[in-house]
From TrEMBL:
This is Uncharacterized protein. The chain crosses the membrane at residues 6-27, 39-63, 83-103. The lineage of its organism: Bacteria, Pseudomonadati, Pseudomonadota, Alphaproteobacteria, Rhodobacterales. It comes from the Bacteria. Keywords: Membrane, Transmembrane, Transmembrane helix.
Amino acid sequence: MAGAIALALVFCAASVVVYVAIPAAMGKPRPRRFDSLEALRAAAILFAPVWVLLVGHVLWALWGLASEFNPSVQDGDLRWHALAFVGLITSLGALISAPLALIRVWTTERQTRTAEQGHMTDRISKAVEQLGTEKTVKVIEEGESVEKTLPNIEVRIGGLLSLERIAQDSVTYDRGRDHVRVMEILCAYVRENAPASTARDDNPRYVWEAALAKAEEELSKDIEDKVQRHSEALELAHQRTGLKPSDLEWGGAATDWAASLPKPRQDIQISVSILGRVDKRVSRRPEGVIQAGICDGDQLGTRPDV
């Protein structure tokens, strides 16, 4: 008996080594978080040698009991013989049902995960549908009632907040599997509904820098001294734009220009706010890193209300 236990322990240790070594050799990293299916697989691999030894031991005992059976023995011995046989059969049935129960648990878990993934897909699809909703309103133009199609801002905001909730749930329960996808949807929504092509390009800072660079280039052919060339370039840029370097400081023309920008549409503002609320818990994970430049340039002509 002691030898069988020692052999079972040796097989368990070998199973652990195989379980750890095979994925490492194949270049597959272990999941960082607890995975129920992975736990079931590990338990099956770990206890498989023990199960095989127990089944073999029970079968061997049954064979020995059957080979030693003698109908001519006394009733008391026959009774104990029958009880031993029933006990071994019961043990064998329990051992055979163990892997079947494990398979049933495995199948149930897979079905549950499939249902969860389908539910998540439905949630994303419904939220994306809400992002494209429109409404028809009647307006008076030149004394006539005209129907116009406008974005349904209320429904779109609901879709945006639903996407944010999906991203948060994905980080909490699904290792951020859908987090980046949701962020990409939000960025695409901002790009399509507030493109940089519609932004104002009269930013005083950009106008001044472009005029100064052009003046520097024009004067570089005639003036070699850098200080003199820069001084005359400043004067030339001022004549062409009416601006001066002090206008770019706080309280100058650039500040007035920024204050004159229109506020973004409410759904666009909420999209940008959601992108700014990226969960810090996933900022260190590759699948959770959202580059700040994804949506750069889409709001150059609007003034975020944040």
